[in-house]
Amino acid sequence: HSGMCNLDGEKNSEISGNFRLHAIQSSFLNIKLEFVKKKIARNRELAYLYKENLPQEIISVTQNYQNSNHYCFQIILPSHRDELMKYLTQNNVEVKIRHDFLISEQKKFKDCEKESLANAKTLVKKIICLPLHNNLTNDDVRFISELITKFYKNI
């Protein structure tokens, strides 16, 4: 994946291909497909619960909670991102920066002509991902939301 770092923290210098599915992988996929709709529905519920419980200071990137076909991440645009991440981590909440630079910033693309990406460059420095997975409970989402609310009341 061209948007990830290698183990040394350097941006990747190789672009990977789109490889075909093996027969054994497709067999497993057929079995897992039975559960996908249920998992998407659960993640949609959790994302909506975040939306209902997060403070006004938080902008949620996901806007359409009813019609999306996927929910992998709960992406937010908080002010004071680094301080919020530190606070949540200290309270045992795993938060991540999914992409900390743009794909166009990869070494492989340094000679490519680039459009102005000012908005994208600004946003990539602001976003974080909150936990969103099927093992998360409604109480977990409320707890995380309460921590974020408490953080903003104290800044």
Q: Number of helical runs?
A: 4
pLDDT < 50 stretches: none
Measured on Cα atoms, how large is the radius of gyration?
18 Å
Structural class: mainly alpha
Strand order of the largest sheet: 1-2-3
Main sheet attributes: strand count, strand direction, barrel closure: 3 strands, antiparallel
Gap between N and C termini:
37 Å
State the helicity in percent bands.
40-55%
The backbone outline, from C-alpha atoms, is: flat
Helix-strand pattern, N to C?
HEEHHEH
Proportion of residues in β-strands: 5-15%
What's the total number of strands? Answer: 3
Report mean pLDDT, rounded to a whole number.
82
What's the gist of this structure?
With 155 residues, the chain is mainly alpha-helical.
What keyword list fits this structure?
155 residues, mainly alpha, three-stranded antiparallel β-sheet, 4 helices
Please provide a written account of the structure.
The chain is mostly helical and 155 residues long. It is 41% helix and 6% strand. It has four helices and three strands. It has helices at 23-53, 81-90, 118-124, 138-153; strands at residues 59-60, 74-77, 128-130. Strands 1-2-3 form a three-stranded antiparallel sheet. It starts with 22 loop residues before the first helix and ends with a helix.
Summarize the helices and strands and which ones pair or pack.
Blueprint: H1 23-53, E1 59-60, E2 74-77, H2 81-90, H3 118-124, E3 128-130, H4 138-153
Antiparallel strand pairs: 1-2, 2-3
